[in-house]
Design a protein that fits this description.
Elements (H helix, E strand, L loop, with lengths): L19 E7 L5 H11 L3 E10 L2 E9 L6 H10 L3 E7 L8 H14 L4 H9 L3 E6 L13 E5 L4 E6 L7 H21 L3 E2 L8 E5 L5 H10 L2 H8 L8 H8 L5 E7 L2 E10 L4 E8 L8 H15 L4 E5 L6 H8 L3 E4 L6 E5 L3
Parallel strand pairs: 12-13
Antiparallel strand pairs: 1-3, 1-4, 2-3, 5-7, 6-7, 8-9, 9-10, 10-11, 11-12, 13-15, 14-15
């Protein structure tokens, strides 16, 4: 069954849409496109846009046109066939979306960078696909192409996007463009974890950056400078120093990442983000006493929220003792909504803005 707005080339509709997207397979010979243009003019069709997609044995011209009122699609198909070409698809088009393909892809990339959770929607628009579905990579089955009507794009987080289109097979140029988009967004996501310099009124140069094993000594000194009360709020136990074996897990947590607040050579704050479910992650914060109430914890938590959003995470959780309102107040300043766990009041849930 044809999808709404995705009509087979031989179908007719009682109401002519404002524009059609027509795909014509032809040999790449001089004058072929000119003859097609003359045929379209004879049918009183107005060409609004043209893209040329190289395919094996010729080219696939995609023409956006405004058809004459009441023109049956089969008349257009017959005219194209009369010039020795093949009309592979005719679908409804929106003239408001007439943008140069390169510019359209760049605009789509900007949308996905601004909101990584919309990647499937953006890829659907770029490919003019019927549907794009996010699935675990093990379920993607990239070998199943369905005669070119199905394509798979692997993502860095172990998932994949599966695109399907009934109205026409995907051509290589379209797939290359979509692959470049996915690669660009992966690079942008990696760059999100890059260093950030805090803009402070006192001019102090504080940098938020990813923690690495080489920071072990500085993180050990951070713990040594913290009070027992600060350490208890973080670990909920009476630690005074951190065993050496803990330091690596603090800086490179399994499946997660750490963010340090650095002033000069000193680490003054440490935060962790550890994904635990497809849409959730655990977090922790530690800020040196002398730097508390100066926005360091808020900046670290806001940074964790940015990294979480880039991974498609929508909800964070943290261990927070009942009656301790430091983390809830920090979350509020970072723009996150919080609520206490129903079954476990020591578990604080933090929700990223929608």
């Amino acid at each position: 069954m044809p999808q709404p707005g995705r009509t087979a080339a031989t179908a007719e509709e009682p109401v002519t849409p404002s524009a059609w997207r027509v795909r014509i397979r032809m040999h790449d010979h001089p004058g072929t496109l000119a003859r097609i243009a003359i045929r379209l003019a004879d049918l009183e069709c107005n060409i609004l846009g043209l893209s040329v997609l190289p395919v094996p044995g010729g080219v696939l011209d995609e023409i956006v046109l405004r058809p004459a009122t009441g023109l049956p699609r089969r008349h257009l198909v017959d005219a194209i066939r009369a010039e020795g070409c093949e009309c592979t698809a005719i679908i409804d088009a929106d003239v408001h979306e007439l943008v140069d393909p390169s510019a359209s892809t760049l605009l789509a990339a900007r949308r996905a960078v601004d909101d990584p959770a919309r990647l499937a929607e953006v890829l659907k628009d770029v490919l003019a696909a019927d549907v794009v579905t996010l699935v675990p990579a093990v379920e993607a089955n990239p070998a199943r192409t369905e005669s070119g009507h199905r394509a798979v794009f692997a993502l860095a987080d172990g998932s994949a996007l599966v695109a399907r289109r009934q109205w026409a097979p995907f051509v290589q140029l379209e797939l290359t463009r979509a692959e470049a988009l996915v690669t660009l967004l992966a690079a942008a996501a990696r760059n999100i974890a890059g260093p950030v310099v805090l803009d402070r009124p006192d001019g102090a140069a504080i940098v938020l950056r990813k923690g690495v094993p080489g920071d072990a000594d500085a993180v050990s000194e951070l713990h040594r400078r913290c009070s027992m009360a600060t350490l208890f709020r973080r670990y909920h136990t009476g630690v005074r120093s951190v065993p050496r074996r803990w330091l690596h897990r603090l800086l490179v947590p399994p499946r997660g990442t750490s963010v340090l607040a650095v002033f000069g050579r000193e680490v003054i704050g440490l935060a962790q983000l550890i994904p635990v479910t497809s849409g959730g992650a655990e977090i922790s914060l530690l800020v040196e006493d002398d730097w508390q109430q100066q926005g360091i914890g808020t900046a670290l938590l806001a940074r964790l929220a940015v990294l979480a959003e880039a991974q498609g995470i929508t909800e964070l959780s943290a261990d927070c003792l009942a009656g301790d309102d430091v983390l809830p107040r920090t979350a509020a300043r970072a723009g996150l909504r919080t609520e206490r766990g129903v079954e476990d009041s020591a578990k604080l849930r933090l929700f990223l803005p929608a």
